Amino acid sequence: MKIAILSDIHGNLEAFESVLNEVYKRKVDKIICLGDLIDYGPNPNEVVEIAKREFDIIVMGNHDYAVVDRSIIKHFAVVARSSILWTLDVLTDENKLFISSLKLEENFKDIYIVHACPKFMLDWTYILSIDEAKIYFEYTDSFITLIGHTHIPAIFKKVFSNIEHIVPKEGVKYKLERDAMYFLNPGSVGQPRDGDYRASFGILNLDELTFEIHRVDYDVKKTIKKILNCDLPQILAYRLENGL
How many CB atoms are closer than 10 A to CB 131? Predict the structure, then answer.
């Protein structure tokens, strides 16, 4: 079984459509989304509508969670607070209802699916380092845990008490060993933060036991123009162009 893993689309329609076109070419069996369909980008409704049709599994991200509980907004950075208020204002009631129906965690086969971190989902912890991974490996017994949230592709591998952090190279298939446990992060479709503006997604092959990262070029200037022409913070356009 071949599974496409997408995360952190953040209302970026151009990046989303480009990634889906690439995913379709790869003839995957399932598409899993790790959350944050909305915020930052100028097309939250369009992204949610496509997600409803195309995704087999979606978990709720912290920006999605603002639809359910606006009190989370006080924990956002200044730019994120401004952009989520704009996003909540333009979201349709139907799409708010759909987002509110999403779960914080899902399981599929031997895969645990969450936006940020296992068990303590509402902490929205960023797993960026071995020290952080070490803490959260204690809260899952799944062979594979899928995480997003950081907007940076990553593989964390645990064998007994040893944890390795692998920065996956684009297009390289990484073999998953059955005697290990993994956190797999596909990076971000709509707002990468690793210095590469191109949209990022992952392919998990359960037959071959491999994981790979792919990057997709898209019309980033079109998205930037949309941001500049609405009431979103303009710094989001700069961040998008520079992959920050």
Answer: 10
- For 183-241, write each residue's pLDDT tens digit: 999 999 999 999 999 999 999 999 999 999 999 999 999 999 999 999 999 999 999 98
Q: Judging by beta carbons within 10 Å of its beta carbon (0-12, 13-18, 19+), is residue 149 exposed, middle or buried?
A: buried
Crossing angle between the packed helical segments 13-25 and 220-228, to the nearest 10 degrees: 160
Spatial distance between the Cα atoms of 195 and 200, rounded to a whole number of angstroms: 12
Distance in angstroms (rounded) separating the CA atoms of residues 129 and 180: 18
Residue type, 122: L
Q: Which residue in 200, 191, 145 sits closest to 168, CA to CA?
A: 200
Q: Could you tell me if 60 and 34 are in contact, meaning their C-beta atoms sit under 8 angstroms apart?
A: no
Rounded-to-integer distance, Cα 121 and Cα 125, Å: 8
Hey, where are the domains in the chain?
2-242
The total of other beta-carbon atoms located within 10 Å of residue 157's CB is 19
Rg (the chain; Cα; Å): 17
> Span 2-242: which CATH code?
3.60.21.10
The residues facing 205 across adjacent strands are 2, 210
Which three-class secondary structure state does DSSP give residue 159? strand
C-alpha span between 175 and 15 (Å, rounded): 28
- Which tokens belong to 32? 């899993």
> Measured between alpha carbons, how far is 43 from 34 in angstroms, rounded to an integer?
18
pLDDT tens profile 79-134:
999 999 999 999 999 999 999 999 999 999 999 999 999 999 999 999 999 999 99
Of 77, 78, 143, 133, whose CA–CA distance to 107 is shortest?
A: 143
